[in-house]
């Protein structure tokens, strides 16, 4: 089965008074997609293509600044949050068996006004990224409600553990990703734009520029491409949600390939990694003991350790 495309218009951002019948229908479609594939494209969410392009445009301006202007914003230098900030090329390996990923990123984890934000040469960076973070947050909460309904659970079951998105008590992160041009003569053996991995938290929202490269591992064990479909958002289940649902909703492995040799195009994406609140204890929602309860933040820190290697672990 390929990645399905669902029409979210009945529950798009800004819409209130949705009928129970419409919510139920949509929740069943989510259930099918998330139990069989783990990925789904949503169209008509209320987040439109122009919004996405605006965020990519200001992000690219930042990534194209000289390195000494980006360094002051490095991940690890923000006292309020270990994950906030800029990550240089080859700094992380999402598949620790491969060389560092050929990508740059800027993580926005806390919206605290006390933070320093890039502004030289990118004066609207903070406004544009913060607004987009809040739009993604609203959409995520709608999806989490439908996901609970899809399992015949109380609609607030997942939402109750996502009350602090955007504050220092929750690790949800908007990550703007930039894949610079690749000179194939300099590429290391087995290096990719982004190595094989599954995401760590509850769900991920992903918006991609038109350049290809993203592949998802399907149940038959084959990688299938997940191209950008303008105007849609690609949503996937992450590992903590798989555990929370006792493996009913599945998180699928994915990666981003290098462009063909001689293709110097760049690529961009915006990933909104939704995490439960730091203090949330995640126990199997069916009441089973398939997995022992785990603290959400402890789980995340153990996954960061794998990604950054013990040398650079920030804990
Ligand atoms: O850039 C992409 O298309 C996907 C990136 C990704 O999977 C990740 O950062 O977790
Ligand atoms: Fe991912």
TrEMBL record:
InterPro entries for this protein: DIOX_N, IPNS-like_FE2OG_OXY, IPNS-like_sf, Iron_ascorbate_oxido_reductase, Oxoglu/Fe-dep_dioxygenase_dom
Keyword Transmembrane helix belongs to the record: no
Source organism per UniProt: Phoxinus phoxinus
Keywords, ordered alphabetically: Iron, Metal-binding, Oxidoreductase
The name this protein goes by in its record: Fe2OG dioxygenase domain-containing protein
MF-aspect GO terms: metal ion binding; oxidoreductase activity
Domain of life, source organism: Eukaryota
Fe2OG dioxygenase domain segment(s): 170-276
Homology family: Belongs to the iron/ascorbate-dependent oxidoreductase family.
